[in-house]
Amino acid sequence: MIYPSLQKIVDEIMEEIITESVDETFELFFLRIKAEELVCRLLMELEKRDEQHLYALNIRDIQTIYKVKEQRLEHPEIPPVIKELAVCANMSPSKLNRLFKQIFGNSIFSYYQAFALLLCKWFVYHEYLKHKDAVHPAFPIPLRVCKPVLLPLSSEKIAQKFHQPIQL
């Protein structure tokens, strides 16, 4: 099955090929150019499409994805390894990534990075004066590295950001 917008492009190019009278010497060259034009126009049309594929979710998969998320948030000092998480979740790595992104809006690694940065902000906000250049065991980046990107955050805001119910 081909999308109607793509079929329209194919029909236009085919119509040009059929109706155009080309000298036999240039016929192969003409067909090659039309083939390249067809590929180019199809790619341009595909680039315009902005639809995201949503996959059907069953309750067991949703529960598994939430468990994976909780595991990641319990151990922020360990970067996520997709293959290991997929084995623990009894899913393929691609399915795990796809479902995680569909539910939470980000890939597992992006979600982890956002949480780690928020954790860094929290540590700096609450402990910066006590431990100026300390490395917190839960976030192995020196706090001085985080300082330029910090915004004052309260622990309530952090809790709201990462423990609020996610809308499906």
Automatic annotation (TrEMBL):
Matching entries from PANTHER family are given as: REGULATORY PROTEIN PCHR
The protein in question is named HTH araC/xylS-type domain-containing protein
Give the taxonomic lineage as stored in the record: unclassified sequences, metagenomes, organismal metagenomes
